[in-house]
Amino acid sequence: MKKIRWGILSTGRIANQFAADFCAVRGASVHAVAGRQLAAAEQFAHRHQIPNAYQGYEALFSDPNIHAIYIGSPHSLHFEHAKRALEAGKAVLCEKPLTINFDECSRLQKIAADNNAYLMEAMWTYFLPAIKKALAWVADGRIGKIKHIKADFGYPQRPYDASRREYDKSLAGGCLLEMGVYPVAIAWLFLRQDPESIQVSSRLAPNGVEDDLSWIAKYRDCTATLGTSFRCKLQNWAYIIGDEGYIAIPDFWRARECSFYVLDERVERFIDNRQTQGLCFEAQAVTDDLLQKKTSPSQVTAEDSLAFARHMDWIRAQF
């Protein structure tokens, strides 16, 4: 296989960003896009110079020319769409959260294994150069032993509307799955362990979905203070704090830079100067895995996705 041909499922905002970034992916092309409405798919295809546009998703699953499918549909549809794609023998890159709970995540991982099919959650943050640099600083012992992680991600989602996707109960609305997955994922990335306990402070929107969350996760030798919100703009930085220094990552979920500090002095700063949003890095990683005939991802593994889902279930159980 010399080139991976992709299909895009969805014509929404994140799918547009993914398609726009694809110009930076080597060894791959986008063969088709599918939407609920043909007109939307055709407009998407024209905008991104994609040769084929389909109404409905079955044509995407059954297209023999497609090797991999990117899924950008609402959270509540991820399981069914990924299941159909995997059973059709396609590799799947599915937007975060991979599923709406741990049970669905476990079932989906089994479906991938049973079909010898590739499945990766699109936690694009893990592939960003600034995040990789921060991991390298930690691995090199620059900050010593991690003692605290602080991270939050929130943007106001106004006006409140129970039928809006972010709040819609039928679409698994709420700030935990929409934005809180990022603080959950960054804590897991640097600690790779389950917390011993989690304390949650929550506030709910009028329809009962959570719209503001803060939680403290206590680990064996570390504490993570995390949060997410639809009510207000949070700082959206991450801090990885050790006993010999700390790392600050502005807008960590889409990080373009990070800085290493000892006490109050910034010792080193990294800026990636990329020309894309950064979604190309995850697409490149999947493409490279498939060209190497791997049937499971090298990064954002099943273990990672199961951990995200497990931790979010534990948080959800407290509100």
Automatic annotation (TrEMBL):
Residue intervals of the GFO/IDH/MocA-like oxidoreductase domain: 132-247
**Superkingdom of origin:** Bacteria
- Record carries keyword Oxidoreductase: yes
Domain Gfo/Idh/MocA-like oxidoreductase N-terminal: start-end pairs: 4-120
Keyword Oxidoreductase in annotation: yes
Q: Which UniProt keywords apply?
A: Oxidoreductase
What Pfam families does the record tag this protein with? GFO_IDH_MocA, GFO_IDH_MocA_C3
Family under the similarity heading: Belongs to the Gfo/Idh/MocA family.
Tell me what this protein is called: Gfo/Idh/MocA family oxidoreductase
